[in-house]
Amino acid sequence: MPLIASPDASPETVGLLQSWKLPADVTLAVETGTIDNDALLIERCNKADAILLNWAKVSRAAIEACPNLKVISFLGIGVDGFVDFAAARERGIRVANVPGYGDRTVAEHAIALMFAVARRVAQFDTIVRGGGWAEHPSGLELKGRRIGLVGFGPIARETARMALGLGLEVVAWTRSAGRYRRNFSTVKFIDLAELFATSDVVSLHLSLNDATRGLIDAVLLGKLKPNAIVINTARGGLMDYDCLEKLLAENKIYGAGLDVFPTEPFPDRPMKQLPNVVLTPHIGFNSTAALERLVRGGLDNILNFFAGKPQNLIV
Questions:
Q1: Facing residues of 74 across strands?
Q2: Are residues 125 and 269 in the same domain?
Q3: How far apart are alpha carbons 235 and 285 in whole angstroms?
Q4: Backbone φ and ψ of 22, nearest 5°
Q5: What torsion do the CA atoms of 121, 127, 133, 138 make, to the nearest 10 degrees?
Q6: Model confidence pLDDT, tens digit, residues 134-153
Q7: If DSSP codes are grouped into helix, strand and coil, which group holds residue 113?
Q8: CATH number for position 13
Q9: 124 and 271 fall within a common domain
Q10: Of 235, 245, 250, 293, catalytic
């Protein structure tokens, strides 16, 4: 009978796990609260056959202290920062993630930020809450404008579908444009410099790696139109935030909607005081529907593994 340990479940995760009927031969041990040391993780997982992992770090020491462990299923995508892959491989422990669970939700957040910036929602909200009443400055109508998608993975493709439905022209840059031209004939694929120079909205949809870190530099940002909007729901490390902050402060672009930052939590800096910026705390992935897909997918990774049908394996 496999024992699944969920050592650091959120309250929402607990509710979902308790609402689903599990196979009779599976035991699920769920505990909540942040885990910030090996000892606590080991205490909660040392008898487990599988770990359903939220945010805890599974170190070599933790892996060595869990003799029954066979599979770790991470509730997210970027599992490399949470599990010691080398130690897992040495023990023959498999590691899985949950790809695709938040594609639609993150895309919707990108669109939400686009509208919030274009119509100065946060700025006018602050005015009304402060007892004021104002009709200016005017916002932007987005129909007919060009949105440029940097990257064309699953989230960008969802964003493209929504943007087309809203009446925007969609262009995109990706190193593998040939893969998508047939199925996305309404999207024009262009080079990165042209995308930044001609788009009214630029939305980032790249993973962060050695090839993309700092890719959106001062040269590219300097090509933006005066009425351009920058949206980032991908990773903060993709872009030169110092340069972006200067452009925003000097009103050289219209605004920005940012859900991710080079350092999180985002430290105090002038950008936080600018009225043409909408900031959210890396919650683009966080909707009730996405959370249900995430937890269900993470649990299914484990159940299918023990049923001899492993899926979503990274290690």
A1: 53
A2: yes
A3: 12
A4: -100, 160
A5: -40
A6: 999 999 999 999 999 999 99
A7: helix
A8: 3.40.50.720
A9: yes
A10: 235
- Annotated catalytic, 44? no
109 assigned to active site: no
Residue 314, domain member (yes or no): no
pTM: 0.89
The token pair at 14 is: 């607990």
Can you give the pLDDT at residue 81? 85
- pLDDT (0 to 100) of residue 182: 87
Whether residues 96 and 111 share a domain: the answer is: no
User: For this structure, is 235 an active site residue?
Assistant: yes
Cα–Cα distance between 167 and 144 in angstroms, integer? Answer: 6
Count up the domains in the chain and report the number: 2
Write down the catalytic residue from 90, 179, 264, 269.
Answer: 264
Confirm whether 45 is domain-assigned.
yes
Note the Cα 305 to chain centre separation in Å. Answer: 26
Of 119, 282, 292, 296, the catalytic one is 282
Closest listed residue to residue 202, CA positions, set 210, 213, 194, 212:
194
Residue 80 pLDDT: 84
Which of the residue ranges 20-24, 196-200, 225-229, 283-287 would you say has the lowest mean pLDDT?
20-24
- In the chain, the DSSP E strands lie at 3-9, 27-32, 50-53, 71-74, 94-96, 146-150, 169-173, 188-189, 201-204, 229-232, 255-258, 277-279
| Residues 25 and 136 placed together within one structural domain of the fold | no
